[in-house]
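#struct-help
A.M.: can someone run this one for me? Single chain, 281 residues.
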Amino acid sequence: MIIDIHAHLMSSSFSRSGRFNLWNAVLRHKLGISTAPDFLEKMKNDLRESPVGKVVLCAVEGSGIAAGNREVLDLCRNDGRFLYGVNLNPLSPSVCDEMEYAVRQGAVLIKLLPSWQGVDLSADPCLPFWQLAAEKKIPVLVHTGPEHTFRGDNRLNDPGRLEKAAEMGVTLICAHCGCSMMLHERSYFSEWARLARKYANVYGDVSGFSGCLRHYWLSRILRDGALKRKILFGTDYPSYPYVFRKNDRNIFGGWLDFYASRGLDQDFFHRAQEILNVSET
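D.P.: on it. Structure tokens below:
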């Protein structure tokens, strides 16, 4: 089964929110959507008309753009095609209770955005969070590399800060493999590659690999057999491959076509099912 390991649901307050940048405004225009119901209808149609079996919806608390935990959980309860990706803050005093609750509600992974959340994931106060994640065997998807939608200190997105968590046995998925999108930005690709080679429990997702520079990083990965075996399929929906332009193009299908054209095999498309321990039903 093909699982999109990294997608987002538009917040129901998005149309009333001014908290989005030019990229988000262009994206909304490109997709021909103006409201959250429009977005959800397109996502469901795209999913129904593509070979993707399930989609992990990664919540983002307090963003005003992406839906938060409650909204994502409600959708996942009502539609089995969507899987719950809970957004937690490792520095929250109640984070362990929150994780226990999320697991009981069916969360398949935890999503972290260090720069947006202002968290140094290498700091000792995060250790109880990492310990429980290892015990629960719940994967943690961490944004790595420069962030463009949710602003913050990009130095916190360095995959090197995940070394302690990797040593503790946490299954880590480094979103975007630490790669940059712009020429002027620092890339953390080498930091991710080092961890991915060193630890069997460290992976990367290639979601949102739009633009020529990220295509360069993808080529680097595909030339390295060890790294190629550590990447997972994701879209960062509603991100889309720059190679198509039509507003009505199926986003899931576009990404599948793009990665297939780069020679990625079925292991790549199906790898997430085992890592997330998700059944066909």
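A.M.: thanks! The CA atoms of residues 119 and 156 lie 7 Å apart.
D.P.: also worth noting: Strands lie at 3-7, 54-58, 82-87, 109-112, 140-143, 172-175, 202-205, 231-232.
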